[in-house]
Specification:
Chain lengths: ~375, ~375
């Protein structure tokens, strides 16, 4: 296949993560806000843990720093920066080496959510903004600087009101970011409303894709618990995602902003055909009394506006045509504990063994490359 | 001769009639029971307490109406299909739709009125009144076609067991739980005595749309938000997490013979969830306190059934889930039903499906579960 790209991409992870380096806040946060920053402490078992603002307990790092960790070795505590936390978690040059070993050409990089929520929970909006801006500066000028064609930082949006959401979005575009992630509805409301429109409008005009990673974490009152006894980590996240997608569709956001593009990140894909069928069926039956008027059928909006990322999802692959072959993108979730480094190629081969080469190329590479503008 | 079941709806509804509470509850409770009032737009509504907004019966009694004629208001008991709340006409309505039998649920909105009352005697009396009415005026008309499930109180494990055992003598074939037996926000060891009793009595347990984590007063309208979002996620939104929590709790290792039914939460999303649960279990079982003997998906296939209405996707992917784990339903007479066109809808949805598989999903699995034949 002849490629027209500057760089030839073969495998792209549409959802990977940064981990904050131990000196992130000391180096990148304005000094006057340093008291609001997360603090590094001993986790009680010889490892490092962050104390996020106002938290009674420290958050250890074991499950978000898994580089070749076997399932039997997984645990939250006992991992320390500079000792057994692999530098690729927080250093871009090191990340590139490890990507080479895994055959991954580029990664979309999402932030450490617990750290972001630290600032977002701060009622002092100046401190809130300073923290998010410090992260975004480090992301661009620190982590991604060694190779911005392979390390694609996703700009974290703050949550201090619609005007700032719009201006930060414009700033992200100006600084060369290829995508932004929201952790709350752009106007900060509990529910989607017309107050969010200026943000969607700007995103559509700037052609800046907007990601929702699993859920709108800053809209809920709780931080997702790290020591939950639930085996279902992430597996049930689509229960939160479904209502977000349907709200945007049924409130007519995509009729008003037909160029808006959204990514549902780490939401999985196997559930989507069922969801689309239900959404259409309920629309046909209930649109009269519910007073919902759309230009298209609900499932059309999904296919025209959304990209969904997944990690391991054989059921989704088997029904990919019912989702939309252009609407799905593979990811590693590296260095979180769902990743299969350095066997991503093996995982892909097994999962996509029955998939024609052209479709496979879309799923593991070009859908993400086009969505985030890597092929220009 | 035993009936030859072709089409069994594993999820249908009754509409509680105006006389139910005063007929089946003692006089001392009558001042607090729901009453039927005008809905202000020519229809009728339930009023749950003085000063509360009337809750119209509209979309719960909309069978046979065109989509653009379905409304919350303007529907009366007299104008609704009489089988919504009477046994004999219900059989006629089943015949018109080609349905041999239905598994009957009430309204969680209505039961919330009793659950949310601070007087446990009133609470229990309301639950028992519903069950007594259902047994006497509906199920007894033809227990082979009108399959009764006992509504259980939210008063703790002992009260749940007592009402279950009382109702089994009235001809019920399963129980409908709106909360977990011990009324916790997730499945707990204290629920075990209930599962044990249900297993010993061979009673399937049912959750309809969701498991209430806390008891709330009934809402004037039944659908969250009054918009389509709640309808489109069809209860799946709640059951995705609750089903996962139940499987992870290890309850299926302790009670391997108990049958669980997830009702009106859809089915097409299950193959995806089961794959993800297995993957997370494989990766994380060393560090998590979750201890299971088998993969999560194996428990689902052994212990659970789910219902579906329109779900081409579930039918198409039936082997990924298990043909024996799926039961068709009409949701009659709620706004999701296609009465009296269920046969046409089923024909269209099952096109290309082998007859024996279709038979199981549309009737056989329910016939076996409820011991109808």
């Amino acid at each position: 296949m002849k490629s027209t790209t500057k760089r030839e991409y073969r495998i792209i992870s549409a959802d990977s993560h940064t981990v904050e380096p131990p000196d992130l806040w000391d180096k990148w946060l304005e000094k006057k806000y340093i008291d609001t920053a997360p603090k590094l402490v001993d986790d009680g078992e010889g490892g490092d843990a962050w104390v996020y603002m106002g938290a009674a307990t420290a958050e250890p790092l074991g499950l978000v720093t898994c580089v070749g960790t076997r399932p039997e070795e997984l645990k939250w505590t006992g991992k320390k920066y500079g000792r057994d936390i692999h530098p690729s978690c927080h250093d871009g040059a090191e990340r590139l080496k490890i990507m080479d070993e895994d055959g991954v050409d580029a990664e979309m990089l999402y932030p450490p959510q617990r750290a972001m929520l630290t600032f977002m929970k701060n009622k002092d909006t100046e401190a809130h903004l300073a923290g998010i801006r410090a992260y975004n500066r480090w992301l661009k000028d620190g982590f991604c600087a060694p190779d911005p064609d392979r390390l694609i930082g996703i700009f974290q949006m703050p949550n201090v009101g619609i005007e700032t959401s719009v201006s930060e979005l414009q700033r992200a575009k100006k600084e060369g970011f290829r995508g932004v992630a929201i952790s709350a509805w752009p106007s900060g409301g509990d529910n989607l409303s017309a107050a969010d429109d200026p943000f969607w409008d700007t995103a559509a005009q700037l052609d800046m894709p907007v990601s929702i990673h699993l859920l709108l974490a800053a809209s809920t009152t709780k931080i997702v618990p790290s020591k939950s006894a639930a085996v279902a980590i992430g597996a049930t996240a689509f229960s939160y995602t479904m209502p977000l997608i349907t709200e945007m569709i049924f409130q007519g956001v995509f009729d008003r902003f037909p160029k808006l593009r959204m990514a549902g990140v780490e939401i999985g894909i196997g559930w989507i055909p069922h969801f689309l069928e239900m959404t259409d069926d309920r629309y046909w039956r209930n649109r009269h009394w519910a007073g919902v008027k759309l230009k298209k059928v609900p499932s059309d909006y999904f296919r025209d506006h959304w990209l969904a990322t997944f990690i391991v999802d054989r059921s989704g692959i088997s029904v990919r045509h019912q989702i939309g072959i252009d609407n799905i993108a593979w990811s590693t979730d590296f260095p979180h504990h769902g990743n299969d480094w350095p066997y991503s190629r093996k995982t892909i081969d097994e999962m996509l063994s029955d998939v024609p080469a052209e479709e496979r190329n879309k799923i593991v590479c070009t859908n993400a490359a086009q969505f985030w503008g890597l092929m220009a | 001769m035993a009936r030859d079941y072709q089409l069994v709806s594993a999820d249908s509804h009754v509409l509680e009639p105006p006389h139910i509470w005063t007929t089946y509850m003692e006089k001392r409770f009558h001042s607090k029971v729901p009453t039927v009032v005008p809905d202000g737009e020519g229809g009728e509504a339930w009023q749950f307490g003085p000063g509360t907004a009337p809750a119209p019966i509209g979309i719960y009694a909309s069978a046979g109406r065109a989509h653009d004629d379905i409304r919350w208001t303007g529907v009366t008991f007299a104008a609704a299909n009489q089988g919504n709340f009477r046994g004999e006409p219900r059989l006629d309505e089943q015949d018109q739709d080609g349905v041999d039998a239905e598994v009957l649920f009430g309204s969680a909105r209505m039961m919330s009125h009793f659950y949310s009352d601070e007087d446990p005697e009133f609470h229990l009396a309301g639950v028992r009144a519903y069950n007594d009415w259902l047994a006497q005026e509906i199920v007894s008309v033809d227990p082979t076609r009108l399959v009764g499930l006992a509504c259980l109180p939210a008063l703790g494990v002992e009260a749940a067991i007592a009402e279950m055992e009382r109702c089994l003598k009235l001809g019920f074939r399963g129980v409908w739980l709106n909360t977990l037996p011990s009324v916790g926000d997730r499945v707990r060891p204290e629920d075990d005595r209930f599962w044990e009793a249900a297993q010993a009595n061979r009673v399937p347990v049912h959750f309809h749309v969701r498991i209430m984590k806390s008891i709330q007063k009934p809402k004037p309208k039944g659908v969250r938000g009054g918009d389509l979002t709640g309808l489109a996620s069809v209860g799946a939104a709640d059951m995705i997490v609750q089903l996962s929590e139940i499987i992870e709790s290890g309850v299926h290792d302790r009670f391997p013979d108990l049958a669980w039914v997830m009702v009106e939460a859809g089915s097409g999303w299950l193959p995806y969830l089961l794959e993800q649960l297995d993957d997370r279990w494989e990766r994380n079982r060393s560090w998590l306190p979750v201890k299971l003997r088998h993969k999560p998906s194996e428990y689902y296939r052994r212990n659970w059934l789910s219902t579906f209405m329109i779900d081409h996707y579930a039918v198409k992917n039936r082997h990924a889930l298990g043909v024996g784990n799926l039961m068709w339903s009409s949701d009659y007479p709620h706004h999701g039903c296609d009465w009296p066109r269920s046969r046409a809808v089923v024909d269209e949805m099952f096109e290309g499906v082998p007859a024996d598989e279709r038979r199981k999903m549309c009737a056989g699995n329910a016939v076996r579960l409820y011991g109808l034949a």
